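Illustration 12: Lipid-binding serum glycoprotein C-terminal domain-containing protein.
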Amino acid sequence: MLLSNITIYQLQVLNSYVKPGDTGLAIIASGTTCNLSMDWSYEYNTWIYPVEISDKGHASVQVEGMEVGLTLGLKNQEGTLKLSLMDCGCYVKDLSIKLDGGASWVYQGMIDAFEEQIGSAVENAITKNLGEGILKLDLFLQSLPKEIPVDDDASINVTFVDNPSLSNSSVRFDINGLFTARKKVPIPMYYYKNTLPSVLCTEPAKMLGISLDEAVFNSASALYYDAKFMQWIVDKIPDQSLLNTAGWRFIVPQLYKKYPNDDMNMNLTLSSPPILKISEHNLDATVYADLIIDVLEADQVIPVACISLVIRGSGSVGIAGNNLVGSVKLNDFSMSLEWSNVGNLRMYLIQPLMWTLIQTVFVPNANTHLAKGFPLPIIHGFTVQNAEIIFSRSKVTVCGDVAFGES
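Figure caption equivalent — predicted structure in token form:
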């Protein structure tokens, strides 16, 4: 009997588990049932009767109690994840076969004689299909993007930097994770050596752990600084009187005397990228900035003084969908006069105004941008659920479960 065109059209798995090991990722499925269709043909002749007997038809096969096992290899290949089938096996416990076509009713009673051959053909067909499926999955992994867009200016580099590390309960992937300019403008790179466990989840049952080194946050800081995003001109504040020289006449008398009742604005420019430090309990940020006080006279913008600021704040992070979002609050700041065209500025009188300006204008502006967040490296179609944020030395770890569904 010759079997051909074996087609699996239904497969149900009762039990399965995945077991990472030193040599690969083992996947075992048991109690599996599947339905197949195939074509059969039969030829018989002997030297006694020179007449050839042949027949052909179609068969439906139901497989019960099948066990399938495969071992997958994972490695880094030029920044992408390479998946290979290292071993694959299939065992068919019980077959139910129904022949159609030809004189199938004649052969149905004799089918036991061919059951072993049919079972072997089914095992080979399923093994072949699994191999083809792994090749398709490998092509999918190879096609995953190497960058995740954040906005028009920035992307996150998600290329793999080492081979996956397998333990008895997890698979660990290390990716670059740094922010890069979409316009390919060179930015300072932050290199770090990972000497700590990458993921520190408090609940082992969590399906996913993503550990973000502070180098990731500092690369974002450097990128947006170099893209000239970190400067603001403030011409509207809650107390608008502070943007007129009349509001400063008792604080900087010479300013009001030189430019009476002229409008003003504040030009804040960061002098270097903000520096972020992550500890076991906090995410701290230090910002170095220059605040230039401008007077608006007729069609002219006249710089009259420059104040150097060192702003210290603390941040918090959370999860919104598949994005890591954040917020920052002001802890304290220090200031010094860089230069002035309106005499000496008494900094102790200006400090309350600076506090108000930072607290009511710059912090809310920063939080508006931080609330948008940036995407975590999650495969499209999966969503993070029940997320937990854990701080450790130089790292923020996101632990959670994942569910399939459009994100």
